[in-house]
Design a protein that fits this description.
The protein contains 13 helices and no strands. 57% of the residues lie in helices and 0% in strands.
């Protein structure tokens, strides 16, 4: 038997017998991390739980989304995973794809019903923090709440202002971001930008009528 075939057979035997589950988990996580679509597809076909999670409660879908691998994401989505599951840090697959800037994966996940709005950190906040303009536009088009706040009380506008993402700040303002909102420390997006010496963002916010 071919070496890959023997390896796959051993993994399937572990899955079938229910023993040494940790070894099977390591193998499938390794396959997803290495974009081994054939192995993952075969394991899922033979009965591996598509909702299997690795370290930090990161699902197979989350791993594939974080790496930005549309082919792998499709294989996993075909198994109907819990698309809105969260890892140990409260992140969904959509959030991870948004943070890393994987536009095609974001589209795949949204097409399968991934949540845009939920409590705590959300995809728009992640996109704003990382200046993922295309993804932010997609999320806004899908009804992302422009003034939602993360666990630290920051809005997407505050996140973008803090990082000096001028284009993102403008995009958010154009779609109704409220510059008068304050975080728990009492700072608006303008105050945050000024503290970080983001002069171009400060000028833009002032022209938009923002205050501290």
């Amino acid at each position: 038997m071919h070496s890959v075939g023997r390896w796959l057979a051993s993994v399937l035997l572990v899955v079938a017998c229910g023993g040494a589950a940790a070894g099977a988990l390591e193998d499938v996580v390794h396959a997803v991390n290495n974009d081994d679509e054939r192995t993952v597809a075969e394991l899922l076909k033979r009965g591996l739980d598509v909702n299997t999670v690795g370290p930090n409660s990161e699902s197979l879908l989350m791993i594939a989304a974080r790496h930005g691998r549309p082919g792998m994401v499709k294989i996993i989505l075909d198994g109907r995973p819990r698309i809105n599951a969260r890892n140990a840090f409260g992140e969904t697959a959509l959030m991870l794809a948004a943070y890393q800037g994987h536009t095609e994966v974001v589209r795949q996940l949204l097409a399968q019903g991934a949540e845009v709005n939920h409590d705590g950190w959300n995809p728009l906040l992640y996109a704003a923090a990382q200046n993922r303009m295309d993804i932010a536009r997609i999320l806004i088009g899908q009804g992302a709440k422009i003034n939602s706040t993360g666990e630290n009380g920051a809005t997407a506008l505050m996140m973008a202002a803090r990082e000096g993402h001028l284009g993102m700040v403008l995009l958010l303002l154009e779609h109704g971001a409220d510059p008068s909102l304050k975080n728990p420390d009492g700072r608006t997006a303008l105050g945050i930008a000024r503290a970080q010496e983001r002069r171009d963002v400060v000028d833009l916010l002032r022209r938009a009528g923002a205050s501290e």
